[in-house]
Amino acid sequence: MNGEDALLVVEKGRAVVRRVTTDFETRREVSITEGLNPGDQVILDPRAADLDEGTRVTATVR
Questions:
Q1: What ranges do the domains of the chain cover?
Q2: Closest C-alpha to 5, from 16, 21, 17, 28
Q3: For all residues of the chain together, what is the average pLDDT?
Q4: Contact of 10 with 43, CB cutoff 8 Å
Q5: Distance between CA atoms of 29 and 11, rounded to whole angstroms?
Q6: Residue 20 burial (C-beta neighbours within 10 Å; 0-12, 13-18, 19+)
């Protein structure tokens, strides 16, 4: 998103873009310091599921 960090989360059954602030980052991990709350459900691979903001989703726990 224009050089900003963001991810998709599930809100009320839909995919929603959430801006986040990150800190430490490697190829496999990233530390998110702002923008998420405990219990937020993050969509791990939105490209693989071909998701866009507003798409209806069903959350599953891994």
A1: 1-50
A2: 21
A3: 86
A4: yes
A5: 23
A6: middle
